[in-house]
Amino acid sequence: xxxxxxxxxxxxxxxxxxxxxxxxxxxxxxxxxLDFAAMVAASxxxxxxxxxxxxxxxIAFERSQLDALILQAQRxxxxxxxxxxxxxxxxxxxxxxCGNPIGQARLEARxxxxxxxxxxxxxxxxxxxxxxxxxxxxxxxxxLSHDASMGGSMGTGAIG
Length: 160
Ligand SMILES: [Zn+2]
What we know:
This protein has two domains: 1-115, DksA, coiled-coil domain (Four Helix Bundle (Hemerythrin (Met), subunit A)); 117-160. The chain has helices at residues 8-46, 54-88, 104-109, 117-159. It contains four helices and no strands. It is mostly helical. The longest helix has 43 residues, at 117-159. The chain binds zinc ion (ZN). Residues 95, 97-98, 100, 115-116, 118-119 line the site of zinc ion (ZN).
């Protein structure tokens, strides 16, 4: 991982690449909106607004998938915009969290990256450990309610 400073050539190359990504993302978003409009029109035609109707359920599923794809494309577009801003401010190659260089290789693989691989890994492991803790809490709760119901049935046994 070499952290050589970004040159003007790097910056203009990155700007061009981000612009291509932006065009692609806008194109994708426009297509998704067209798909969405077509789906809404089709569902109005088929009059399948009953969720218990199998066709209605399919439409609801497709709609939620399209919603997710549109959201994803919008987020990507916002990330590209942020990357362009960071590039203009000369902050593009610096990690947003620790200020260290993000690294050429990472930026080439992921031009919208805002943090270095160390910080990105820390964020991921924080999410994972939070999920772990939630898992443990859930398990504890299950065991407690199990104990409580055992106690309850023993109590009932004593009365009966
Ligand atoms: Zn960092």
